[in-house]
Structures
1.
Amino acid sequence: MTAPRIVLVLGMHRSGTSVAARSLAALGIDLGKNLAPPMPGNPKGFFEDMAFVRIHIALLNSLGLKWHSLEEISPEPLTDAASGEFGERARNLLQRRMSLYSSFGFKDPRLCRLLPFWRAIVDRITGDVGCVVVARNPMAVAHSLTRRNNFSLEHGVELWHLHMKPLVGPIHAGWRKITVEYDRLLEQPEEQLHRIASALNLVPPQRLAVETFCNEFINVSLRHNLAGIIHAAPLHVRRTWDELQRQSLLN
């Protein structure tokens, strides 16, 4: 089994997807050079290719939605978009990035809700895809969104569920997947790097790259919102979280 040509980092906003994306650099995955700059709310950097983010924002806007909208997105308009102008932009962008790197990774939390679009795009380019699903306690995410965006806890929890429910089962036929819990990635970074490498058949993490990631990038003090009381979340949210936690213990 060869290493994937494309690696997607999937997870809700405020869930540690930036940390997971940065971890890919220790595993031989390139994220490109067109990355969003650090900001006060994320001083280590977002590791998001802004060209992909702009497509996602425009695609959501075309559906009358924002990243924080609670409306369900049906697959049909997304698969239709993959055959039109948005699809052409996305294919051209991805092919340009793949021409530069042997393995290319990208992340944007909006990916979770736009998966039908990207399945249609990627299927026309390659079937060699790996996915890193990053799961964080929904109550911690909701508290973080309250602090940053002034959302209600109820809004934050339901938004978490809309992003994470599509990631519970297989992402797409033939795509490899590994689920990583955010708190474990912070507390056991070397162990989680080895899990990701093994599940996606990436190069084993090199000692210097591991030390750089663990000692210079990982900073537990930046985790401002701890897990919180999960039983305060609705039952459907708790069930999704329980399954993601179970998956994060596999491999």
2.
Amino acid sequence: LMPDAKITEKLVALLNQSLADTLDLAFQVERAHWAVDGRNACGLRLLFANLHGQLTTYVDAFSQGAVTLGSPALEALRTADPSTLPGGNPPDARGDKIVLGDLVDRCGEYSGRIRAAGRMAESLGDLDTAAFCQGVSRDMDKTLWMLTSIQVA
């Protein structure tokens, strides 16, 4: 049973925003993968590669959700220009602590946005999208915990 047109429109917008947020974070993770250097660079690159793969599965799921509702997935990458990345550090910043600190901030922001998207999906009656978003935010909270624990070490 398809929701009415107004609810469908809101759900599509929510899914496409979540898709854009996920693509944005995946781009930042890829940037971090190549920007990190120092003693722990090899281990961090492996961690970042795994996180990028995790985000790719989310990209597919958000895209599929929008398509299932009859809309194209609008894949918009807001940070195609690396100089627009938030965090206060220049795009060529290197070093474990700088790169990891920026990524911790970005993952925390992403997790919060996805959690809010889940609450919105639930309020619109889309319990499947709500449950998926809750799972994504839980996974990202675990990732954030891991990144934070490395940052402190």
3.
Amino acid sequence: MKATLDIPDEVAREVQRRADRAGREFVEQIAELVKLALRVPDNAAAGGTVTAGPGTARQGALTVATDPATGLPIIHSPPDAPVHSMTVNELSALTEAALSEDDLERAGLSLRR
């Protein structure tokens, strides 16, 4: 099915950035994001729980819930997820690397080609 969509510029830029990072075309990335959004139950926006299982970019069962007091997401990962065995320094280094990569991509200087 073909459709014409009006997408805000900032959203289109983010979709393109993600598509570039994943090695996909823009329309492929849009389709993937729509598929992911359709997996989210209707009650998730009202503080429900979302479970991402097989077929997602994640391994194992990952649950995302909303803290009723703060409204912030709470992410529960499987016990064998790498995050459980990482040190604070390793997590900080991973975060810094991801932020640096994002900054470079936004500046048009992506290290991935």
4.
Amino acid sequence: MKCYTSSANIKQPHRLRALMRVVSVIGVTVSLPLILAAFAQEPDDLRPAQATETAETWDVTLARGKTRDIDFVATEGTWMSGDISRDGKWIAFDLLGHIYRMPASGGKATPLTQGSGVALNFQPRISPDGRLIAFITDRRGQYNLWVMNADGSKPRPVVSDLNIITFEPAWTPDGQHIVVRQSTNVDGRETSDGLWMYHRDGGQEVQLVKGRSGASGSDPVWPSISGDGKRLYYQVSTGARDRQPLSGAYQIRSYDFETGEILDPTTGEGGGLSSGGGVAPEISPDGRWLAFARQIPDGLLSYKGHKYGPRTALWLRDMKTGAERMLMDPIEPMVWTGNKTLGILPRYHWAADGKSILIMQGGRLRRVNATTGNVATIPFSARVHRTISEMARNEFRIEDDYVDVNFFGWPTSTADGKRLAFQAVGRIYVQDLANGRPRRLTPANFDPLEFAPAWSPDGRWLAFVTWDDGARGHLWKAPADGGPPQRLSKNPG
């Protein structure tokens, strides 16, 4: 590896190669959503699709490069959005970028989007007559609203626009229209467009609630329509400075389709005086109860001995009296930024009789009784078969040889100006300024990464700090002419 913008010629230790391997692994982890988007599948023989098309016929759903298959049966999942049919007989849910269908009592789930290649498919919503499923997919290169038959056949776009992003579909009670939250992405800059309504067969769209025009706008998301079709419920961000749910930065609003009137079922903003607001509203079929989520200020969750919070619970608000009560605690932890999760919570839904709610919690599908709060688990088994595309990366080897370093850190000289210390590739080096060659300060068996050298006034010692993911950070000193370093700090920091 050569970089010719500096004169420091440094021999690389074996640890740097190990470090580069670690960086490569970290890159894989950070890019997990992109890797998931590279999954693919053929509906018949499950063999990877071959990318043989030209630029003019490019199909974004095909697997690329050297592929490999994964295949397993899942009995739990992460961030699954679910819905239950109006007749109460079957459930649709998403898992690892595919949509599944199964009996409402649980059992073996059938994949409905298996033939969509590397596309992601999620947030299914069953039409009132049970004949269609609205969902979000990127099979044409952008997250757009699509519909398919209830058995997964005849998928077709309602919105097909590379500059428009849609999420969170909600059907109108007549089954003719679908409301989504929408944003525009132009030149990589995304702007909220608010809540829009589309006919299920396409055609002219209608904007119902405007998106934010600035940093303090309302940014409406998560639409839910009353059973009589008169009101639209949704979540807004109020523009609170700290953007924290506990201080009321997220509230619920309702929109009257006939008059355009907007009401606020939840209110309260500012410091510790807020009720905590509300998010993710779902109105009951009869319009009597509004389900929503709220954080518990002092509530904690425990996972493998680690405690974290605040906990998120599901609440019910009586739309006649305004009384509120907690229904289910806990539910999935709220991700209030929505980053990497496509929403603040997984989508959930009321049963048509208004007696229960289907919701995902703790990796399982649950059914919570709206009167008693009793929670039942709906077991499922879903075959997950994916073809993973080759990662778009260029592997190369860094040899243990002298390299020309391009980037230095913390260059500092002795008081007499005769010697220089600096950091490069995780190590501290010392060099005579009269045409000297850099020499590593610490011995080769010193493992932690080294930073920020500082000379002692007499030029005999160098102080520096280290970082190690296990031992954390410490303060050290070492003889400038070579020798074992001495740790000065007792506790890591």
